[in-house]
Amino acid sequence: MRKHFPLRGGLLQRTQAWVRAVDGVSLDVYPTETLGIVGESGCGKSTLARLLLRLIEPDAGRLTFGGEDVREASPPRMKRLRRDMQLVFQDPYASLNPRLTMEDAVAFNLLVHGTPRGEARERARALLGRVGLDPRLYGRRYAHELSGGQRQRVNIARALLLDPKLLVLDEPVSALDKSVQAQVLNLLQDLKEERALTYVFISHDLNVIEYVSSRVLVMYLGEVVEAGTAAALAQSPKHPYTQALFASAPSLDPDRRLDRPPIAGDPPNAIDPPSGCRFRTRCAFAMPRCADAPPPLRPVGTAHEVACYLYEADAAEVAGRR
């Protein structure tokens, strides 16, 4: 998948440059698994989430859901497909209509798909109760009357109302404090087991990703630099960027105190990214060849891939065994 956004300027508002938000990301999501996507702010995670649901159109690439080509779907068919694909947004307040009560906000999805108002409200009340909000207390309240955690529960209920198969969660707990994060994450885990859901879970928090995910993609500046099971990445991160992410995670262990930052500098501009490996300008192991061509994503073990020239020998050994 690829998505570049034009930057326009001048008197005639002509395109002067392109922001390479998502630049050649390939992924598979298997039924009932949780695929975690992690990376710094600005690496293209949220753009990728919207591409997966075709809320924005990709510039190139192929997108299939259950064997059906989503990009070729007509508007009526796309409306039906969206019953099976739902998104939980990052900001639990901005994604709710301030003029609707929570009961009506959740029921709105069913109304759009032609369900009678009385039935829609009844199902909305039942689902509010399932996510831990008593509909008698919270059903007639507005968004400003709820806490952040309660709003996010409403967003989860709204996404589940149509009985989807796939839930794309874009930083669903990043705006919440730690105690509320744990409650929402445990709720998501319970709902996943009950409804046999498939999650694409996007976050910049490695602890959250490791807790909820079965497989993880690590993104940097619009590209995937490492992929593998959550256990493999936690035990042996390969890419220097992934290693820096894990080293940056806060720890209460005084023996793990850092004397210097694990990663230096800011991410390059997505308008004009570095040639070759995009991480090379911040990498302590950069070689001259890193500037020539981007390293491909290669297998370095069972269910583990990395895009880095440091592991060419490992990749060749894995390929030889196959």
Structural commentary:
With 322 residues, the protein is of the alpha/beta class. The chain folds into two domains: 2-84 and 166-321, 3-Layer(aba) Sandwich (Rossmann fold); 87-163, no CATH class. The protein contains eleven helices and twelve strands. The chain has helices at 45-52, 75-81, 102-112, 117-130, 135-138, 148-160, 178-195, 206-212, 230-235, 240-248, 312-321; strands at residues 2-9, 14-23, 34-38, 64-65, 68-69, 85-88, 166-170, 198-203, 215-220, 223-229, 298-301, 304-306. An eight-stranded mixed beta sheet has the order 6-7-8-3-9-10-12-11, sandwiched between helices. The protein has a two-stranded antiparallel sheet with strand order 1-2. α6 (148-160) packs parallel to α7. It is globular and about 65 Å long.
CATH class descriptor of the largest domain:
Alpha Beta
Total helices: the number is 11
Helix/strand structural class: alpha/beta
Number of domains: 2
Mean pLDDT: 90
| Largest sheet strand order | 6-7-8-3-9-10-12-11
The percent of residues in helical segments reads 25-40%
Main sheet makeup? 8 strands, mixed
Order of helices and strands: EEEHEEHEHHHHEHEHEEHHEEH
Spans where pLDDT lies below 50 across 5 or more residues = none
- CATH 4th-level superfamily of the largest domain: P-loop containing nucleotide triphosphate hydrolases
- At CATH level 3, the topology of the largest domain is Rossmann fold
- Which geometry do the CA atoms define? globular
Proportion of beta-strand residues: 15-25%
